[in-house]
Design brief:
Number of domains: 1
CATH superfamily: Glycerol uptake facilitator protein
Strand order of the largest sheet: 1-2
CATH class: Mainly Alpha
Catalytic activity: H2O(in) = H2O(out); urea(in) = urea(out); glycerol(in) = glycerol(out)
Structural class: mainly alpha
InterPro entries: Aquaporin-like (IPR023271), MIP (IPR000425), MIP/Aquaporin (IPR050363), MIP_CS (IPR022357)
Number of strands: 2
Keywords: Membrane, Transmembrane, Transmembrane helix, Transport
Subcellular location: Membrane
GO molecular function: glycerol channel activity; urea transmembrane transporter activity; water channel activity
C-alpha cells in the first residue's frame, strides 16, 4: 500500500527539522515577558540579594572546608582567595543592574556621594543581608555532616572545636580596641581604592576589568588586615551569617560573646567607608583637573614648546584641555 497524502502530511508533523509552531514561540515570549520585573528598585534589590548570596557562598564554603578538615583541604589563604573570587563573580553577575554594591558600607558611601538615591539605602541593605543569610543556610546544609563531625555535635563559639567562625567574624582573645580600628582602616582602604577605578579625570580602569581589580583589592585587604579579627569590611557579610547561626543552633552566644563584639563589624565598616570616601574627596577628587577648565602653561618652563623667546608679549599661554 502507498502512503496517502494525509499520511505524508501527518509524518511531516513529527519531522524533527520542522520549525517550531509560532504559538509555542509566542507562549515562551509571553512567559518571559510576564517574569520580567518592571519596577527598577525591585530589579536592583534582586540583583543585590543574588550578588551577596554568591559572594557569601564562595567565602563561607571555603571557611567550612578549611575549618572542618583541620586545614588538610585548604589553608587560611584559601578563604581569602575564595571571598575574592566571590566578589569578582558577583560583580560580573550584577553590576549591569544595581552596580554590584554587595556591601551596606559601600551603598552608604555612594549615597553620601550622591551617586545613589538615599531611598535605596535601606532596600539595598536588607537585600544584601537576606542574600548573606540564605547563602549561610546553604553552606550549613552542604557541610552539615562535616560540621557535626568536627564539633562533636556541639555548636559553640568558644574552644578548639568551635564552628561559629565559619560564618561570622570573631576577635582574637588578646584583642582590645584595636579590632575596631582594623575594621575602620580596612573599609577605608576598600573605598579609597575603588572610588578611583571609574574616575574619568584620572586614569580609570577598563570597565570590564573593574570586578577583577576590586577582587584583588579585597584579597590584599584580607591577606594583610584580617589576622586580628577577620576582614569583615562588610556589615551584611557578618550580620547575615551571624543571624543564621543564631537561628540554626549556636544560640544568642553569637551576639553576647567577646563583650558583645557583634556591633564592631556592623558599625565600624560604615564609619571606615565614610572616612575613606572623605579622604578620597579631599585628597584626590578635589584636585583632579576639570575637563572644561582651561590649563595655564607657563612660558618660562625650560624646554616647553611654549617657552617665551621674546616673541610673545605675555608670560603664560592658556590651553583648553581636550
Amino acid at each position: 500500500m502507498t502512503n496517502s497524502p494525509a499520511g505524508e502530511e501527518k509524518g511531516k508533523e513529527w519531522d524533527e527539522g520542522a520549525p517550531v509552531p509560532r504559538t509555542w514561540t509566542h507562549l515562551q515570549m509571553a512567559t518571559m515577558k510576564a517574569l520580567k520585573t518592571r519596577n527598577a528598585l525591585v530589579r536592583e534589590c534582586m540583583a543585590e540579594l543574588l550578588g551577596t548570596f554568591v559572594l557569601l557562598l564562595f567565602g563561607c564554603s571555603a571557611a567550612a572546608q578549611v575549618k572542618t578538615s583541620r586545614e588538610t583541604k585548604g589553608q587560611y589563604l584559601s578563604v581569602n582567595m575564595a571571598f575574592s573570587v566571590g566578589v569578582m563573580s558577583a560583580m560580573y553577575l550584577t553590576k549591569g543592574i544595581s552596580g554590584a554594591h554587595l556591601n551596606p558600607a559601600v551603598t552608604l558611601s555612594f549615597c553620601a556621594l550622591g551617586q545613589v538615591s538615599w531611598d535605596r539605602l535601606v532596600p539595598y541593605c536588607l537585600s544584601q543581608l537576606l542574600g548573606a543569610y540564605i547563602a549561610s543556610g546553604l553552606v550549613y546544609l552542604v557541610y552539615y555532616d562535616a560540621i557535626m563531625n568536627f564539633s562533636g555535635g556541639v555548636l559553640t563559639v568558644y574552644g578548639p572545636n568551635e564552628t561559629a567562625s565559619i560564618f561570622a567574624t570573631y576577635p582574637s582573645e588578646f584583642l582590645s580596641l584595636g579590632g575596631v580600628l582594623w575594621q575602620v582602616v580596612g573599609t577605608s582602604m576598600l573605598m579609597l581604592c575603588i572610588l578611583g577605578l571609574g574616575e574619568q579625570r584620572n586614569t580609570p580602569a577598563p570597565s570590564d576589568l573593574i570586578p577583577a581589580i576590586v577582587a584583588v583589592i579585597v584579597l590584599g585587604i584580607s591577606m594583610s588586615m584580617s589576622g586580628n579579627c577577620g576582614a569583615a569590611i562588610n556589615p551584611a557579610r557578618d550580620l547575615g551569617p551571624r543571624l543564621f547561626t543564631l537561628t540554626a543552633g549556636w544560640g544568642p552566644e553569637v551576639f553576647t560573646c567577646y563583650n558583645y563584639w557583634f556591633w564592631v563589624p556592623l558599625v565600624a565598616p560604615c564609619i571606615g567607608a565614610l572616612i575613606g570616601t572623605l579622604l578620597y574627596q579631599i585628597l584626590i577628587s578635589l584636585h583632579l583637573p576639570d575637563p572644561a577648565e582651561p590649563e595655564r602653561v607657563c612660558c618660562r618652563t625650560p624646554g616647553s614648546r611654549f617657552e617665551n623667546k621674546g616673541i610673545f608679549p605675555f608670560c603664560c599661554i592658556t590651553m583648553i584641555r581636550r
